[in-house]
C-alpha cells in the first residue's frame, strides 16, 4: 500500500504518477481511485511478455523514473531501463535476508541507481546481502499522517465494548507468528489478576483474506478463554480507522520479534501514546528514547514494562508527549516526501 499513500502526496506536489500493477488487485484499484493511470497485467510473467507494449506506453508518457517496491519486480524494471533512459529506484521494505551476489542478481542490481532501506536495521542487512556499494544503499525512514483523532475516547470504547474505567492495552497489525500477539497475551495474563482494570485490545484482521494467520488467531482466542479472560481480551477484526483505535487506548505494545521498520510504531507515536516496544529489529531505532523496551519473546519482561506504565500516570503522559514530538520531528509524511523528492531529483 506504500505507493498509494506516498503517491497521493507526490501528486499533490505536482508530480505525474503512473502505475504498473496486477489487474484487479487492491493496488491497481487503489491507484486508479487516487488518479493514477495504470498499466494492468494479468501476471508478473505476462508483464515480461508485454515488455515492448509497456516500453511504448512509458515512452509516450515521457516517464523518466521507475520506483519498484518488491524484489520480484526488479527484473521488469531492469529490462525497461535497458530499453529506455530511465532512473531506477528500489525501496527494500524488508531487508534482504539471503545473499544476492550471483551473476543474475549482479546484473539486475547493477541497473539499480539507488536502493532505499526503510531503517538502519534493514540497511545493514542490505549492505551484507546486495551486490552494491554502500553509496547506493541509503536509509529512508517511512512517514505517516500526523493528524490525531479528536473523537471522545469514551464513545469509541463503548462501540468496542470496553468498560469506561478500564486501562486499555492495545496492539495493532497483522496477526501472525513473529508479530508477538501470543507473547503479549501471556504478559497480559500475568498482570490480569493484579490489575483487574486492565483490558487487552487486539486490532487486526482475523482471517487469511485479511492477511492474518487463522491458526494464531484461534490459539489466541482459545488461550484467553482457558484463562477466563475472553471478556477482557477483545478482537476488533480488520480496521481502516487506526487513529480511532489508538485514541481508545491508554498504552500500546509493539511486540514484533524482528520488525523491519514498524509503521504501527510511528502511528502510535503520532497518536501520543506511551509505548512498550520490542528490543529487537528496528523498533528501538524508530522509538528512540520515547518509549520502553522489552524482549518480545519474554512475557515476564513485557509484563514488567507494562506494569511500570500502569502504575505511573505521569510516566505514561511523559512518554506519550515524547513520542508525539519525535513523530513530528522525524516521521511526518511531509518530511518523508521531502526526502523522497530529493532522491528522485538527484
Automatic annotation (TrEMBL):
<dbReference type="Pfam" id="PF00534">
    <property type="entry name" value="Glycos_transf_1"/>
</dbReference>
<feature type="domain" description="Glycosyltransferase subfamily 4-like N-terminal">
    <location>
        <begin position="41"/>
        <end position="147"/>
    </location>
</feature>
<dbReference type="Pfam" id="PF13439">
    <property type="entry name" value="Glyco_transf_4"/>
</dbReference>
<dbReference type="InterPro" id="IPR001296">
    <property type="entry name" value="Glyco_trans_1"/>
</dbReference>
<keyword id="KW-0808">Transferase</keyword>
<dbReference type="GO" id="GO:0016757">
    <property type="term" value="F:glycosyltransferase activity"/>
</dbReference>
<protein>
    <submittedName>
        <fullName>Group 1 glycosyl transferase</fullName>
    </submittedName>
</protein>
<feature type="domain" description="Glycosyl transferase family 1">
    <location>
        <begin position="157"/>
        <end position="326"/>
    </location>
</feature>
<dbReference type="GO" id="GO:1901135">
    <property type="term" value="P:carbohydrate derivative metabolic process"/>
</dbReference>
<dbReference type="InterPro" id="IPR028098">
    <property type="entry name" value="Glyco_trans_4-like_N"/>
</dbReference>
Amino acid at each position: 500500500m506504500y505507493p498509494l499513500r506516498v503517491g497521493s502526496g507526490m501528486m499533490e506536489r505536482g508530480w505525474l504518477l503512473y502505475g504498473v500493477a496486477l489487474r484487479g488487485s487492491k493496488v491497481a484499484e487503489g491507484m486508479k481511485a487516487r488518479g493514477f493511470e495504470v498499466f494492468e497485467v494479468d501476471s508478473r510473467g505476462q508483464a515480461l511478455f508485454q515488455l515492448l507494449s509497456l516500453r511504448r506506453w512509458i515512452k509516450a508518457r515521457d516517464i523518466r523514473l521507475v520506483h519498484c517496491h518488491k524484489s520480484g519486480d526488479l527484473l521488469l524494471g531492469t529490462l525497461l531501463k535497458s530499453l529506455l533512459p530511465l532512473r531506477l529506484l528500489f525501496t527494500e521494505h524488508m531487508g534482504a535476508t539471503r545473499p544476492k551476489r550471483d551473476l543474475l542478481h549482479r546484473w539486475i542490481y547493477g541497473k539499480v541507481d539507488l536502493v532505499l532501506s526503510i531503517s538502519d536495521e534493514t540497511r545493514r542487512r542490505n549492505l551484507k546481502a546486495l551486490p552494491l556499494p554502500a553509496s547506493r544503499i541509503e536509509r529512508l525512514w517511512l512517514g505517516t499522517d500526523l493528524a490525531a483523532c479528536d473523537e471522545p475516547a469514551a464513545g469509541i470504547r463503548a462501540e468496542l465494548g470496553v468498560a469506561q474505567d478500564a486501562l486499555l492495552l492495545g496492539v495493532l497489525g497483522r496477526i501472525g507468528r513473529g508479530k508477538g500477539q501470543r507473547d503479549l497475551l501471556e504478559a497480559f495474563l500475568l498482570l490480569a489478576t493484579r490489575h483487574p482494570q486492565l483490558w487487552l485490545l487486539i486490532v487486526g484482521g482475523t482471517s487469511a483474506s485479511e492477511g492474518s494467520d487463522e491458526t494464531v488467531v484461534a490459539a489466541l482466542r482459545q488461550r484467553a478463554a482457558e484463562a477466563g479472560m475472553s471478556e477482557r481480551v477483545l478482537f476488533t477484526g480488520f480496521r481502516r480507522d487506526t487513529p480511532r483505535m489508538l485514541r481508545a487506548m491508554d498504552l500500546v505494545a509493539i511486540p514484533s520479534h524482528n520488525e523491519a521498520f514498524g509503521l504501527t510504531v510511528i502511528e502510535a507515536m503520532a497518536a501520543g501514546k506511551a509505548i512498550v516496544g520490542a528490543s529487537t529489529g528496528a523498533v528501538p531505532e524508530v522509538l528512540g528514547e520515547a518509549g520502553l523496551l522489552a524482549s518480545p519473546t519474554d512475557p515476564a519482561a513485557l509484563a514488567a514494562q507494562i506494569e511500570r506504565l500502569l502504575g505511573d500516570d505521569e510516566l505514561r503522559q511523559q512518554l506519550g508527549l515524547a513520542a508525539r514530538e519525535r513523530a513530528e520531528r522525524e516521521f511526518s509524511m511531509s518530511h518523508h516526501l521531502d526526502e523522497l523528492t530529493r532522491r528522485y531529483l538527484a
